[in-house]
Amino acid sequence: MAEERGTARVTCTAPVNIAVIKYWGKRDTDLILPINSSLSVTLHQDQLRTTTTAAACRDFTEDRLWLNGEEVDAAQPRLQACLREVRRLARKRRGDDAAAPLSLSYKVHVASENNFPTAAGLASSAAGYACLVSALARLYGVEGELSEVARRGSGSACRSMLGGFVQWHRGERPDGRDSVAQQLAPETHWPELSVLVLVVSGEKKAVGSTAGMQTSVDTSPLLKYRAEVVVPERMTRMARCIRDRDFEAFGQLTMQDSNQFHATCLDTFPPIFYLNDISQRIIALAHRFNAHHGRTKVAYTFDAGPNAVVFMLEDTVDEFVEVVRRSFPPDSNGDQFLRGRPVGTAVLPEELVSAVVVDPVPGAIRYVLHTKPGPGPQLLDDPSQHLLGPDGLPCRSA
After folding, report:
1. Higher local confidence (pLDDT), 124 or 172
2. 10 Å Cβ neighbour count for 114?
3. Is 52:110 a contact under the CB 8 Å cutoff?
4. pLDDT band for position 2 (50/70/90)?
5. CB 3.0 to 4.6 Å from 340: which of 41, 47, 64, 314, for a disulfide?
């Protein structure tokens, strides 16, 4: 923790996670308790991350928050809930220690930046609140189980508190103390697993997740059946697929669960459409690709937005990227179309092209990001990476 001119500053990064067994619906909107358990893969922060600096100082007169350079209302209830919980844990940890270096009564300033589109179905709130809680916990010297605190900001944020393959337990207690995240396997468990994010749109979605899932809970009988009957069995099966590194079973179940999640959105009244025409074309492309190979080689999943996350083993990446490039030819950003981890070149057999590449749509995919499973939140020790200066105000980027 850096102490400069009486200002304590901590900077952390946190990852995006993508659910392969989806969370949709709360049984308690205040505590953010889910109607079903969920399971996710944490994506690597080299490609997708939130960076957050938290600062506290006796001279600060109010809590303040900057998101991607713009100041926003720091009084929002979810942010304040996280702040209250971290302070409560700090108070409990300190006990009667009056000599603690940082007063819990100080106001805080927080600056947060994403290196990916916010609110476009790429789990920006999950990474954001996981990063906020990690930074605040470091600032106040709080350790231990923090996924429950992150959950108070955004449900899926609890899963971004851990790396690799993560379960979020529904829990049974009304106070939510048992609704926490647990690592099923570390990011090193399945080194061949690769991930492509196909960014169709960076626009903010028309119906946010919070409003959408509440309407689904109120109106969709399919969602109730899914939560009570379908998900418990799928959680057990998915955990087994991951432990056994069984891509065929993992891929099929991932696609089925994504499809059922979007079916509950359609079963909601009025219906919610998170997928667009390009999303549907990506789904069809994946099925044609798998059918051509006679097995599941790629597996799509979509959260509450049109952008696709496609899982595959490393030896499939080059070929499938070339299929995507042929199916959605980049128009003006050829050099920016592929981002993230390196991708090799692939020569496609003619029979694959004729069976899989149907009716290309130029410019429909903005870019493709190649990543892999990664670790949980990280502390940045380099003071030059703080987003807030010693005065507690955002650093001006060059």
Report:
1. 172
2. 20
3. yes
4. very low
5. 47
